[in-house]
Structures are given as C-alpha cells and as structure tokens.
Design brief:
The protein is an alpha+beta fold and about 180 residues long. It has 2 domains: about 1-35; about 35-175, Nuclear Transport Factor 2, Chain: A (Roll). Helices cover about 35% and strands about 30% of the residues. It contains 5 helices and 5 strands. A 5-stranded mixed β-sheet has the order 1-5-4-3-2. Helix 2 runs parallel beside helix 4 (about 90-100). The longest helix is centred in the N-terminal third of the chain and has 29 residues, at about 5-30. It is globular and about 45 Å long.
Length: about 180
C-alpha cells in the first residue's frame, strides 16, 4: 500500500492526466466542427492536418469550397498546365474537372510521411470514367491507380506548394487502351 503522500501524488497525476485527456477530446470535438474539417471516408488515415485532409476531400467529393481551406493564396502545383494561376483559383478547375471526367473518384490513403514542413501522401484512386480522357472513351468498370503527392506546408498551415505524379499508365492498361497488360 502506498503512503499517504505517495497516494496524493498519484491521484494528482491521474487527475492531471484525465483533465488533459478531457481537454484534448474537447479540442478535437471543436476542430471537428470547423467548416474546413471533413470526414470523407478514405481520407481517415491522413496525417492530422486539416489542410491536407481538405485537399483530398476536395478532390474526392468535387467540393471546390474545400480548396480554400486546403491551399494558400500563393500555392503552386507542379506539374501544372501553362497559364494555371497560383492559389485556389489554380486548383478549383481541376477539382471540378475530375468530377466531370469521373463519375466516381475517390482517394484511399496508403501511406503518409511527414518530414518537417513536407507531407508525402501515397494514395490509391478508384475512378469510373464518365467522359473521354487521354483518348479513351467513357464507360467500363471502375479502375484503380496510384498517386504520389508531396505537399509543402506554409506558415499559414495551408499547402504552399504541391508536386504530384499519377500512374496514368495503369489507368490506360485497365481501360484496355493499351495492347499489352503489365505483368502481375
């Protein structure tokens, strides 16, 4: 049995721990009610960073309002098309465009690596083609392909810069657009 002083110390530590846990839970609940915090299935494994979650939720849902929560006013994207503006105005057309090209388009996070101000996300995309894309007619079953994105966070907590690679070759194989299928 613990001495009276030791019991008091243990009780204080337990009370402090429970109080800290309650504060953490209350803070988490408040954050979950923030307009930029989303809960789209498939992004639950993302690093606990609201801007990163908002980025993938915008792409998955087509909700361009989330773009303002995700990227800074000076955000740049590489690669991007000629004349693509910086900031949310550079991403919103892509978000809307992906939902027009694909009737189903969602990200399932496979890996997240955080190093300093960079967040690397490897995702599996599931997409059902709804419009012509890369010379391939719409239709067919949903296909899956990978993406790898590197995001740099800015001082405002939003994405300042992104670099991305999509595995369009696997998409083309899956859609039957290429004559040879990759080895399994």
């Amino acid at each position: 049995m613990l001495a009276s002083t030791e019991e008091t110390t243990v009780n204080k530590l337990l009370n402090f721990g429970l109080g800290a846990l309650a504060l953490l839970l209350a803070t988490g609940t408040a954050l979950a009610q923030d307009a930029c915090t989303t809960t789209t299935e498939g992004t639950a494994k993302l690093a606990e960073h609201p801007a990163v979650r908002a980025f993938y939720d915008a792409l998955s849902t087509g909700n361009t309002d989330l773009v303002d929560c995700a990227v800074s006013a000076t955000w740049t994207n590489s690669p991007s098309g000629p004349g693509t503006p910086a900031g949310p105005d550079g991403l919103k057309p892509s978000v809307g465009g992906m939902k027009a090209l694909f009737s189903e388009y969602s990200f399932e996070t496979q890996d997240v690596v955080v190093a300093g101000d960079k967040v690397v996300v490897r995702s599996m995309v599931t997409a059902r083609q709804a419009a012509e894309f890369l010379g391939v007619a719409p239709g067919g079953d949903a296909v899956q392909f990978q993406t790898i994105d590197i995001h740099q966070l800015g001082d405002d907590g939003k994405l300042a810069q992104s670099w991305h690679v999509e595995d369009w070759l696997t998409f083309l194989f899956a859609r039957g657009a290429l004559p040879i299928k990759p080895a399994s």
